[in-house]
Write a structure and sequence with these properties.
This protein is α/β, with parallel strands linked by helices. The protein has 19 helices and 5 strands.
Length: about 500
């Protein structure tokens, strides 16, 4: 009868409700498991190859490996302790370049009667040793001279040496050591103060802080030159990370951001600011930057691109991949495994090109031959898979993000200079994150600016293979009194590395 639900209809309705409830429970369980893994489990993004084998056991073919460096890392972690220690010893580098101090040991029996013996060979034992850092006073004596004939004229004496800090005691070597300690070794000032006391020298903390501020002011023109050289590129990778800082007079910490802009084939620079909006990005690269920007999916980059027609965006495959890793972390998912396997093939191609030292032209041609079809296949798989998953699920969100950025991601096929991901910029903010674990926050906004200056110099040294402490010492020696902009520009790590290559080629 009309309005009366039959038994069959009731069963069908209740069955549908039960299916919906079970689906909701499964979704919640997946989210809960994901959160537990994020809170208490390993935060590695590596995929267990055994899990992939399980997922693909009923499918034709075999999934390709993930990036080689990840598999190698997994294998190293699974080695027995003894083998691992032996491997560590074999990886010690730089031994051949070390100075050698030789001590010859003569047996007591020979020493008692040397004429009764003759040398017939030797046994050599080599040890790696170190001399702890030590303070010393560098005394510069300028000898005065007086003319023998014109004795009434003033004495002649060499000019006073130029010191890094006007009227200051510290030499360039000490200042470079302090900077390396704070920004590379992540040692707060109070720890350096205690270390110096062990060497018998007490330097007040506020004096060290003053020296560091003055040193960074002296170094800043070189950091600005690096910034200008980097912005001359038409291809930048940009990323940002939050860092807390103390608000003056409040005793409370607020959130600021350290930005990094990197030319993958050139330099990079850091920028400190309290904001994360479009105006901050404009302050970093200007309103009229012309070229390509590779970044994550943060909306500010899209906003900037809409206001600047000269800019095109490139997506980052690592961010897209990361979302599917989270899906697989929450439980076996054949669709996610297929997508990750295909992404692994793309990274395998990039690893081959990197190992071969491929030029941009070769990267472009190889990507056209090997990568383009895989990129198209990934998109097809994501489009087909999207209909099978709820938008609010982990997989649904991963697919929405991936498809939403796929067009800009695929642009890396257009130019051999482009990278497949934004990892070079992301890697550049890692030292800052390591430091923050020790010093927790910047003491002020100005301290954030100082950190940006030093990290700019340090990371460019690392990128171009220049010893950091030696380089800082050279700058602190040469920069006092230097005002010529071209001379300052010639002191950037990129320019020094280029000059070194030219000298080697000559």
């Amino acid at each position: 009868m009309h309005g009366i639900e039959t038994l069959e209809e009731k069963c069908i309705r209740q069955g549908a409700e039960l299916d919906a409830a079970n689906a909701k429970i499964a979704l919640l369980e997946a989210k809960l498991d994901h959160l537990i893994r994020r809170l208490f489990g390993s935060k590695s993004e590596k995929i267990d190859p055994a899990q992939l084998e399980l997922l693909f056991k009923d499918m034709p073919g075999k999934p390709e490996a993930f990036p080689a460096e990840e598999i190698a890392s997994d294998a190293a972690e699974q080695q027995p302790a003894g083998k691992k220690r032996a491997a560590h010893r074999s990886r010690i580098t730089g031994l051949d370049q070390l100075p050698v101090e030789t001590t010859e040991v003569i047996p007591d029996l020979v020493a008692a009667d040397p004429d009764a013996f003759e040398r017939c060979g030797e046994e050599v034992t080599e040890l790696l040793d170190i001399t702890p850092a030590k303070f010393f006073k560098r005394r510069i004596v300028r000898i005065k001279f007086r003319r023998k004939v014109q004795r009434h004229l003033p004495p002649i004496v060499a000019p006073a040496p130029v010191t890094p800090l006007v009227g200051g005691l510290p030499a360039a070597g000490l200042l470079a050591h302090l900077l390396v300690g704070k920004y590379i070794d992540h040692l707060p000032i109070y720890r350096q103060e205690k270390i110096f006391l062990r060497y018998g020298v007490g330097i007040p903390r506020d004096m060290i802080v003053h020296w560091l501020h003055q040193s960074i002011n002296l170094l800043e023109p070189v950091a600005q030159a690096i910034r200008a050289q980097t912005l001359a590129s038409s291809y930048l990778q940009i990323d940002e990370t939050p860092v807390r800082y103390l608000v003056p007079g409040s005793g409370k910490a607020s959130r600021g951001y350290m930005w990094v802009a990197s030319d993958p084939q050139g330099g990079l620079f850091y920028h400190w600011g309290v904001g994360r909006g479009c105006e901050q990005l404009i302050e970093i690269i200007g309103r009229n930057f012309s070229g390509d920007i590779q970044c994550d999916g943060y909306v500010v980059y899209k906003t900037y691109a809409k206001t600047n027609a000269l800019v095109k965006l490139l997506a980052c495959l690592a961010h897209i991949r990361r979302n599917f890793v989270e899906v697989l972390d929450a439980g076996p998912d054949p669709d996610a495994a297929i997508i990750l396997s295909l992404i692994g093939e793309l990274y395998g191609i990039e690893a081959d090109l990197r190992t071969a030292g491929a030029t941009p032209a070769l990267r472009y041609s190889q990507r056209a031959q090997r990568s383009a079809a895989i990129v198209g296949r990934i998109r097809e798989v994501m489009e087909v898979t999207q209909a099978k998953h709820r938008p609010a699920s982990l997989m649904g969100k991963a697919l929405f993000y991936g498809l939403g950025h796929w067009a800009s991601l695929a642009r890396y096929l257009e130019d051999g200079h482009f990278e497949i991901d934004n990892n070079l910029a992301e890697n550049a903010v890692r030292p800052l994150k390591l430091g923050a674990k020790n010093w927790l926050f910047f003491g002020s906004q100005h301290a954030g600016h100082n950190a940006a200056v030093i990290y700019t110099l340090v990371e460019n040294c690392r990128r171009h293979g220049i010893p950091v402490e030696e380089y800082l010492c050279e700058l602190l020696t040469r920069l006092p009194g230097e005002t010529d902009l071209e001379t300052i520009a010639s002191l950037t790590p990129a320019r020094k590395a280029a000059a070194r290559r030219e000298k080697s080629a000559a």
